[in-house]
Recover the amino acids of this structure.
């Protein structure tokens, strides 16, 4: 298993990635974490960059391929 921090992700970004992996929308994630949707999008951009992907689907493939541990 790989930790999200191994990819340079912050704890908050790992939280966002975990919720995204559960199929939550940006709006859902924002509500659950007390963030604005804009902030969630900023986190997603950083997550995609860290994982070297350009979409939510590719991010999920990367999580599976690298065995990234999500809460």
């Amino acid at each position: 298993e790989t930790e999200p921090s191994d990819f340079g992700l912050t704890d908050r970004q790992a939280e966002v990635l975990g919720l995204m992996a559960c199929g939550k929308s940006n709006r859902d994630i924002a509500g659950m974490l007390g963030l604005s949707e804009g902030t969630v999008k900023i986190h997603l951009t950083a997550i995609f960059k860290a994982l070297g992907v350009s979409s939510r689907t590719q991010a999920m493939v990367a999580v599976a391929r690298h065995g990234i541990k999500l809460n």
User: Anything to note?
Assistant: Residues 37-51 form the longest helix (15 residues). The chain has a mean pLDDT of 96. The chain has four helices and no strands.
